[in-house]
């Protein structure tokens, strides 16, 4: 299984996916055709065009999953990329179009999976650690399960000087762990995960990530950290 799971697809002062050019180049080295899953945003054609432009320097042909029979597209592609936006809308469309199982099957047989933000959320067992508002209701929260733990993209650290009176991201994850005994990786902006079969590595920005487990304090992780032990987590 080959995965690249990005916390975000845009960064200040940089083009779409530009901050992850090196990681994308590595994972897309043998890819000539890619299926883009644009369902987290409403404008499927516009979103697909943005991705096609960003991946053009890699010499990759991009087709939107909405533009033709998605099964035929998946079977002819070497990679699938699920973009960010609203996670609830994305998952609803994956259920509605009956695409979760075919994508799982292709990834299990070697198709590269790339996700950013919402696309990273749906690589988890469930979408219950997304930051998004539930603007629509999917049939279930169960997702693709390419990794057996949860991810919180766009993770923000608590800011003691902030005047915000709501819950911090850390508090929300702690509440999740009160009900679910499964690790949660809080990925800060500019970070990503690379999975190559049984190897899982944190990459990207030096800000790194935080790993939350029930009954333990958060663990700080730096780029290059080997997280392969998380692949042995039991889905709860």
UniProtKB/TrEMBL annotation:
Enzyme class name: hydrolase
EC number: 3.4.13.21
Pfam families reported for this sequence: Peptidase_S51
GO molecular-function terms, A-Z: dipeptidase activity
Family matches, as InterPro entries: Class_I_gatase-like (IPR029062), Peptidase_S51 (IPR005320)
Family per record: Belongs to the peptidase S51 family.
Name by which UniProt lists this protein: Dipeptidase PepE
Organism whose genome encodes this protein: Amycolatopsis thermalba
